[in-house]
Amino acid sequence: MHKIFHFYGGVHPKESKVSSGVAIVDAPLYPLYTVPLSMHIGAPAKSLVAVGDTVLRGQQIGEPASFVSSTIHSPTSGKVKSIGTCLGPAGTQLPCVVIEADGQDTPADPLTPITDWRNTDPAILRARVAAAGIVGMGGASFPTPVKLSIPPGKTIDTLIINGVECEPCLTADHRLMLENPKMILEGVEMVANMLGVQNVFIGIENNKPDAIEVLTKEATAYTAPAIHVVPLKVRYPQGAEKQLIYAITKRQVPSGGLPADVHCVVQNIGSSCAIAEAVILGKPLYERVTTVTGTPLVAPGNWRFRVGTPYAEAIKLAGGLKEGAQIAKLISGGPMMGMTVYSQSVPVMKNTSGILLMGPDEVKQYTSKACLRCGRCNDVCPMQLMPGILSVQIENERFDDAQSWHVMDCIECGCCAYTCPAGRPLVQHMRRAKSEVGAKLRAQKAAADAAAKAKAEAAAKAAGAEAPKADK
Amino acid sequence: MVTLVIIVVVGLLTGIAIALVSRWFGVEPNPVEEEVRNLLSGANCGGCGFPGCAGYAKALVAGAAKPGACSSQCAGAAEKMAKLLGVAVVHKEPKVAVVFCSGDDMKATRQALYNGINDCRDAMIVAAGAKTCAYGCLGLGACARVCPFGAIEINEHRLAVVHKEICVGCGKCVGACPKKLIKLVPKSAEIHVHCMNPVRGPEKFKACKAACIGCGKCVKTAPEHVKLVPGAALAEVDYGNPPPEALAEVCPTHALRK
Ligand code: SF4
Ligand code: SF4
Ligand code: SF4
After folding, report:
1. Domain limits of chain B?
2. Which strand ranges, in their side-by-side order, compose the sheet holding A54-55?
3. Measured in angstroms, how far is the CA atom of residue A339 from the centroid of ligand 2?
4. pLDDT score of B211
């Protein structure tokens, strides 16, 4: 039997995974899709269509605007009704294309399927991943092609597939593993080949024994490289990149570093599946599995939604509200890291892993008291920070102090706020400090870049004036 | 007893050390600089563009700055400084801060109840503050807290209001507002278009009954004083030629007001 791994700190909230037994169903077609052009980290995509254009399902409607950006595809066939902005899950306005469906759902010519991908140049596969607009589907939505381009000077020896789904309530990845294990494993092998790694692990928490069993059985067919399914102890935030790397490889990503610094790449289950579909079927990423759950709902479940479906439709699909039930909070994502949204017009995006509703009796009104210095937050912080001390610094706007106490390493998992007996809004404090310190660092970098450029120019001038010295 | 002796000895030694250090490394205060600094307000607001009053005083003595940049010093103090330094006063145009929003809780709606940390900049992290108008004042008073003169009040309906007679135009609040609603404008301007939302009139009117709907009435009445912002349903006062107070009467939503 496997050894069961875990990491420092963390909490174990009530799992409430009520929809784990509900099979994935394709959502019906809706008359209107609001497709944000910014469903990823980085620059919003550039729109390729104009108002009145007819588009087909899977047709490219947005192209990447820079290296860290992504491609966007139409979720169905129809007409471009408008191009403007829409409310995103973070409460900000996102550029978007509104598509009026014609109900035919006519597919565009797919990207050419690459069936013989085992003998295809990894560069071609990587280009396909980019063309299909694949991003990390676990939540952060980092463009996958960028993740798969290893920065020069870094070597990768381990690929970790994140099937942890440690967020309470969410079951989308769990269902996908049960229902589509073959596609997932093909995707895993593709990524492993693209990276040229030999160690491949799929981490799954052992509250999903069925998924572990299915994947372990299917994975025996894969030998080059072998895919190991690793059961993990149930502990939130096991699915956080750095925690997962530590749990499986016992390597610690340095402060401020990336997984590549410890020779690892972490991919989400959903993304692996999407990569396989993009390569084998030529299907771009325009739909995803999302859990719609919460106690006020009649029938929580998992659906395959096209991007751009408004949350309101998703809630209707889950049977709507129980009689007399009320929504006190609507959350995009899971209860620990999700974002509270205040409008049901927010569209499903490539990274919407869940839509969670909470009733009035589940939502605690905020009352922040002074820190008791009990130290419970220190015990649970998986990044081994001292959230209590940090929050006091941040309350007093001592952001420089917070920076030297490593606030930038906070992964916003929410364990600290979850345990705090004083009800302090610790994550909000951390996020404020991270944005302030981030802005400062960016300004410093811009100034340093400008200075370096000026210096280089001056040096070039000087070098042009004098004869270049051979010994330098 | 021993403790007492130790304390006395340590105290004496430290005293001598301090005396010696200040003797050897002490910096002679520049008397002119001291005097100049005493003529400044001591608010350290940074409105002069130097790091605090001491920074400005130093620059004045070094000849790198002219008297008149401090907007919070007493009347006549700039002239005294000028006499002391033997230079002329260069007066700055007096400015005040204006919060360009009229959407208090009577006129503008909120989408949700925000009950997180009581600061606009923190509220921005949670669904951008939950006000229906994305450009509206959150009324949590980040600006009021940074104002060294207490010139900003959050009124009973949760809207930030600058008291013109107290504001010295130092500009500290400008950087504090996460919605970028505060601008410094010439003190001579009587009325302003209190709205920053560029979207279509009907759309913003739904969110806020005090929005500038871009109807252009003020522009038609006094084209020399007010103009429309290009590409937006929004009027803007021409601060080079500010309108008279009476023009406010033409505005149907009272976005154009004092
Ligand atoms: S400080 Fe950050 S990383 Fe640590 S428990 Fe709190 S949210 Fe998580
Ligand atoms: S858990 Fe809360 S009260 Fe306890 S030390 Fe941390 S911040 Fe303070
Ligand atoms: S003007 Fe800006 S900083 Fe002041 S209360 Fe309004 S939103 Fe907050």
Report:
1. 30-92, 94-188, 189-258
2. A32-36, A93-101, A78-87, A54-55
3. 23
4. 93
